[in-house]
Structures are given as structure tokens and as C-alpha cells.
Amino acid sequence: MIMKNIGKIEFIDNKGSFKVEKPENTSYLYYPIAGEKGLKGCVTPKLGGDLMVDQETFILEPVSVENLHNNRNTRNFWLCMDDGKVWSATGSSAEQENNKFTDKQDDSLVTAGFMWHKAIRSNNEAGLTAEVTSFVPVNTNVEIMSVTIRNDSPKAKTIVPVAAIPIFGRSADNLRDHRNVTSMLHRISIIPEGILVKPTMSFDEKGHRVNHKTYYVLGFDENGHEPESFYPTVEAFIGEGGSFLKPRSVYCQKPSFKAGTEIAGMEAVGGLRFEKCVLTPGQEATYTVLIGVADNNEEIEDISKLYRDNKNVEKELTYTRDYWRNKVNVNFHTQDKAFDQFMQWIAFQPLLRRVYGCSFLPYHDYGRGGRGWRDLWQDCLSLLFMEPGEVRNMIVANFGGVRMDGTNATIIGEGLGNFIADRNGIARVWMDHAFWPLRTLLLYIEQSGDYDILIEQVPYFKDSIVHRGNLIDKKFENAENKQLVNSDNKEMVYEGTILEHLLIQNLTSYYEVGEHNVLRLRGADWNDALDMANENGESVAFSYAYAGNLRELAKLIRKFSARCKVNAIFVASEIAALLDHAQTTEEKTRLLAAYMKTVEGNLCGEQIAIELSELANKLESLAESFTEHLKNQEWIKGSRGTGWFNSYYDNSKRAVERYDEDDEKTRMMLTGQVFAIMGDVASDDQIKKITKAADKYLYKESIGGYRLNTDFHEFKTDMGRMFGFAYGEKENGAVFSHMAVMYGNALYGRGFAKEGFKALNTLYQASMNYATSHIYPGIPEYFSADGRGKYPYLTGAASWYLLTMITEVFGVRGQAGNLSIEPALLASQFDKEGRAGISLNFAGKRFDITIENPENLEAGTYKIKAASLNGSGIGLEEGRLVIPREIIDKLGSQNEVIVRVE
């Protein structure tokens, strides 16, 4: 029997699979299941949740988090027993709701791994146990529910199983927009295998479209036999006065429909009534329920033939589990085994972002699918380790979303490099967008040594939005949405190098300043909720970031020039304006305006040569002068050795942060500190003061660590909607995992390993404290004021966490294509034998890397003293292990590296 203990996550293998007892006693839980062909959804412990392909194609009714405990029209599997009693194998009946939190509550357990979910439930009184395994095959758009019923009693049991899957079968927009009217479009057919729903059309206020998709629910017993009868509509299934928790069809054994029946214009249910089954003591019976959508009946027939055989279902489940397990190809070994398994989920989360984008899960009930610009680049950070093969193509294609004015497309279509014009002319500029591409490209080049990518020719995106979103060109017409150039009296698509794209992005951002000679905030930066300071707001936080970018871009240009023996590049002649030196706000504004004018339409078609050494000097000069300006203007001195950098100016032109002797009036934000450290604006002494201030004003261990900001005690309508949120929720003072992880990353990058570890470890501890976080393994977008994890799975924080663990904590990183190892592990991270390890792929080879620390020394006090590769000693470079690419290329597929520190 299933134990009744609750309140913790227990890992059950070394690949992140886990179990949780009595999971239905925790609210808001859901679990992602998806394939690679577009079908995606989620399941709750009681099989709630939804299922869809895209915004227009929801098989099950769309749900937000509040629907998870409010909705009763969930996936269900009923058992009608010979004594007249009824039991739901998913726990969704009126009696089971009444028995919740009492001694009569079912024993229940969820076990789950990457893209599969098993709900186990026992009815002790009836002596029955049900196991419901849910998954989506990798290459087929169907959800499979495999239901096994076992008789645990000493007597034979007679059961009549009834599967009930409500079919929504339309666009998510129809949840409240013409819900009843669109049900009138439904054409329901009963075939021997199940229920088909094919609406005649889909429509909204934009127009009417003939529908070609068929939604379906099919079912089979373990011998491949079809259901004996059906309940095809909501009215037929729940009955007059009934509900999905107490349907008349089940409780009162109401008549059902036979195959061949057709019904029009009603809400649909995939109600499948199977033949009576007698289970002897210990005997099991397995049923398969298929839920999906297809473009034609032939596809449904193929799926039906394949999965009516239960052996094929088991084979598909095994393949699905192995497929996603193999995708997570980074493994960690530390003294904390639970942390090692937690990291499996951190590594898996970027894959979920690739599948789901930032929509289609209950908390992520905004947007209509796809990912944002920022997501395109940050997800590449982890995919460089997980799925490196396609990353180069992704990077090159993504640069095609950059406009000549330095902004970028914000509507991103399906497929690689597909950017869509904003047909509604809504011009919103996130001023941080130009920061991320360079950071991702730098990691890629260091991993691969591929400096030639900088001279890849890529087109620019073009639509009606010009002058960095300040103007709309109402006369714009360009079906391809590509920047054109006038050449020989013809219009041709202009292509420039990736290096040119980077220059335009970073320099236009640098010159777009406000009154304090700090970069304008515009619509927002990474914090979307700083959206009410468009006229006068300034993002000092990302000014630090761009100062760092200019420095890094200069270094990259010098390395590229030396590595590829290139002295100059050609750029569009219009870019010459950006290379003039401007210092004051007025000069920068005037320079930027002049450049904007030259690129608002077609380019002239001429190119000029730029000396790379001169260009690098120019960028370094801009970075250093900007850094000094920011240091002199933005540092805030606190008390008792604390201090920090201001992060923003509001729309009233006031600095947002300040120190006050009354701590309640002190204002501090984490974002500015992250980028001041990361961008090399903060000195080591200032970092020490920042960490003291952050520990004093922002740190709260019980809810995950470092909060985004102190309580401003003000609804700042001159800053952003975040201040309308309750303090401690989302962007207003929550522990926002993304920025907390970047804080840790920045600290590690500057040599503050102990402080960086504190940021990462507190997030881990909070995430895995199930009694408080109430989430399955992984890192959520943020922790609320009471420590609950919110918006799980789809967060860029996971990419940064994985990146930090690999490249900073274990110190395994690329160095111009070579493999460099320089660990910064704390003594507490090594196991009892003084070992820690990481396994990962690099340059197409597998490396198992072990760090030995026999003296249990602390990070910052040890150096690498010896190292071996596949049993042979290998030399060191200034205390680091660097394995040259030419050696790596000659290695076999599996390799062992041992590093000893003293």
C-alpha cells in the first residue's frame, strides 16, 4: 500500500525521476508532457490540465492556475463496481472530494520523469489500485493515457471502466469569445474506436475559415478490443442535473450511444464505456486512451492501429523516456546527491522552453506562443551544452531579427529565423535587447573557436517601425520584411556581417541617453514591469551592462583580427555616423538622430572599410569613459561598510535608489548590482560593499535568497506596473530567480565564489523545500512573499544556473575552442573522498571530469597542481588546465580528465 507521508520530493533514480506522496494535497501543481511535433500540455496529480498544438488548436479546455482547482471537467477514468459503488481512478469524484483530508482519503502517489507522469491511487475499501501513465510520443501528436487497474483484495472484483475526456476542440480565444456559438460548429462522429470531433469552421471577428482538423479520443483494452458504447456529449455524459464529479451516466448507468451515431452542435466528451471485466485477486487490466488532433482521418487510423497494441504503447513509453533522458547530457557529482538530481531538471528546463516557448502552461497564460527576443538568445546559452549541433544556425538566423536602427523584431514566428512584422504598428522597445546577442555569441565562439562566424552575412529585419520605435512609417511596404538597398536602380536585400549587426546594436543603444547621460529605459529593460517611464526613465543597470559589452566587443575584435588575420571589415557607409565621438547627452542625441535618418528607408548601397584596431580602440575608449561617468555619478554610500549602485531614474527624472538612516526608507534594487559587477564597472572593494548591502537589505533565506528590491512603500506610476503588485510578488520584491542567478554568476566571474554560491544554493534549497515551495523539481521564475514557487519550468534562470555551474563553479569552459578547466568549488561541495565531478560534451567528445581536493581546501585558496587525460599527465598553463583543440580532435568519444588541486 502507498504510504501516507507527504511534504517532500524523493528522487528515485540518477536521471531526475522523482516521487511525491499525496500530491493532490498541494495546490497549483502541474507537470509538462510534450513531444517534438507540436503537441504539448500538462497534467495535474488528478489528471487535470490541458492539451494543445497552438493557440488555435486546443484539444482540452485551456486552463490557468486557478482552473486547476476549480475545473472538474478533467481527464477521468471511472470504475463502476458490482456492489453499485463508483470510484475515479484519477481521484475526481464527489465522494473523493468529500473524503479529502480525512482518514478515508485515497492513498496516492505521483512518480514522474522527463515528459512522463504516473499517478498511482489506491482505494483501500474497494481493494483497487490504479496507475495512470501519461505521455506524448516524441514524434506523434497524441497524448497516451495508459491505465492499469489492479485488484488488491482477496476476492474477485467486477468492474465496468468508463473513460471520460472532455473535448474543447477550438481556439483558446473561444473560451469566452463565442464559447456557446462555436460549440454549434461541432460535428461529432462515433466510430468503433472512439469519438471524433470536426468543427465545420473556426472563426472570430477577423473572419471565417473552413476547419480541416479533427479532434479525437480513442480507447482500447489490453487485448486491443474497442469500447462497447459511448457518451459523446457533455449532456449525455453528465446527465440532467449531473456534473463531471457525479455524472448520471456513471452513477445511474444511463444508456450510452453506439458506433455510427453522429451528433451536431454540442459540447463534446470522449466518453468510452468498456466491457465488464472480472479481476481475480492480484490480477491487472490495462486500458489505453488516446487524445489528439489530426489533419485527416488516415492519420487517426494509423495511430489507432499502432496503439491498440499495448506492447507498442509500452515500447513508445520506453523510447520517450530514453529520448528525453539522453537530451540531458550534463551530469554533476557533488556531496549533495539531491542537488545533483536537481541539476538534471535545471538542464531540462531550457529544453522545455524550446518546446513551449513562454506560453501554454497554466501560470504562463499570456501570449499566443513562441518566444521573445531575449529568450532566443538566453536559451542558446544552455543549448550550447545540451544540443550544440544546431546552435550556430540558430545564432546566425537570430541576427536576422535586428533592424538597422539597432532595435529588433519582437514578433517571432515558428521555425528558425522567422520574424513577423508588427502589423498593428505597436512600437515598444526593450532597451536591454541588444545586450544578449553578444553574450551568447561570446560563449559560442569560446566553445567552438569559430571566429569566422563574425563575418557571416545576414540580412536585417525591416518593418514600419523606424527611429528606434519613435516613428511609424505608414507608407512602408515590403512583403519580405527585409532591409533593402538601392543598387543599379534596383532594390536588393542588404546583408551585413554579424560583426556589423553587433556594432549597430550596441552603439545605437549607447547613444540613446537621457538627461543623466545614462541609457534611456524606453518601454522596459529585462524587467517588463518597468513600463511607465518611457519619456524620461533611464536604465542605469543596463548602462553598466552595455559598458561591459563595449569592452567585450573590443576584445573580441582584437582576437578575431589576430586569429583570422583580418585587418579591416566593410560596413554600410551609413554606420560611419556611429563612429564619431560624442560625450554629452546633447551630442549623443544629435548623432543618433542623424544616423536614424539615414536608415529609415532603403540604404544607399555603399560600403566603407573600417580598420579593426582603430575600431577596437574606439570601443574601449567609449567603454572606459562611460564607466568612469557611471562610477562617479551612480554610487550610493551606505553605512557600516555597505554601498551599492543606483539602478534607474524614473519618469520624474529622479534616482530610484537611495540610502537613509531609517532602513525602511532605504531603497535598493538587485539589478543594478548584477550588471555593475558583471560589466566590470564595480571595483573589488565596491563588490564587497555591495554584497554586504544585499545581505542586509535584500536577502531572505526562507523565500529563496535575494529579492529584486526593497519595499518602496509607494505605487510609483512614474516607473512601472511592478509597483502596483503587492510587495513580495513577481517583479516587486520577489526572489526573482533569473536575476538572483545572474547575481551569483556575476560574483563567480569576479572571483567571489563564496558569495556566488550563497545566491545559487539558497535558490536550490528553496526550490527543493517542497513543504514551502510547493513545486516539483526545478527552478521557478520567482518565489512569492511566502516562499511558494511561481511560474515553474519556463524561465531563463535555468539557462544561467546551468551556465554558472559549468563555466564558473566547475570552471569548465571553452577558450577559443580549447577546453579550459579552473574550478571554483567550495570545500563543502566535495564528497567525503574530496571529489567532485562533471560529465559533459565538448567539441563532439564526451568528458568525465573529476576534481580532487584531498586537503578539503576552500575556493580561492587552491590551485591546480596536477592533471591527467585518459591516464596520462598533461601540462598546466598558469595554474589552469588547458587542453588544446588539436589534441581534443584526436581523442576518442569517451574521455576521462582528473584534476588535483592543492
Structure explained in plain terms:
This protein is of the alpha+beta class. It folds into three domains: 10-327, Beta-galactosidase, Chain A, domain 5; 372-634, no CATH class; 810-901, Maltose phosphorylase, domain 3. It is built from 22 helices and 51 strands. The strands form 15 sheets. It has an eleven-stranded antiparallel sheet with strand order 1-2-9-10-11-12-23-18-15-14-20. Strands 7, 8, 13, 19, 21 and 22 form a six-stranded antiparallel sheet that branches. Helix 9 (373-386) runs antiparallel to helix 10, helix 9 crosses helix 21 and helix 13 (540-564) runs parallel beside helix 16 (670-678). The longest helix has 25 residues, at 540-564. It starts with 9 loop residues before the first strand and ends with a strand. 51% of the residues are buried. The model is unreliable at 1-5 (pLDDT under 50).
Major sheet strand order: 1-2-9-10-11-12-23-18-15-14-20
Helical fraction: 25-40%
Count of β-strands: 51
Radius of gyration: 29 Å
**CATH architecture descriptor name of the largest domain:** Distorted Sandwich
Q: Which stretches are low in confidence, meaning pLDDT under 50 for 5 or more residues running?
A: 1-5
CATH topology of the largest domain: Beta-galactosidase, Chain A, domain 5
Q: Estimate the strand proportion.
A: 15-25%
Distance, first to last CA: 51 Å
**Top CATH class of the largest domain:** Mainly Beta
**Mean pLDDT over the full residue set:** 95
Give the quaternary arrangement of the chains: single chain
Shape: globular
The domain tally reads 3
Q: How many alpha or pi helices?
A: 22
Overall SS class: alpha+beta
Identify the CATH homologous superfamily of the largest domain. Glycoside hydrolase, family 65, N-terminal domain
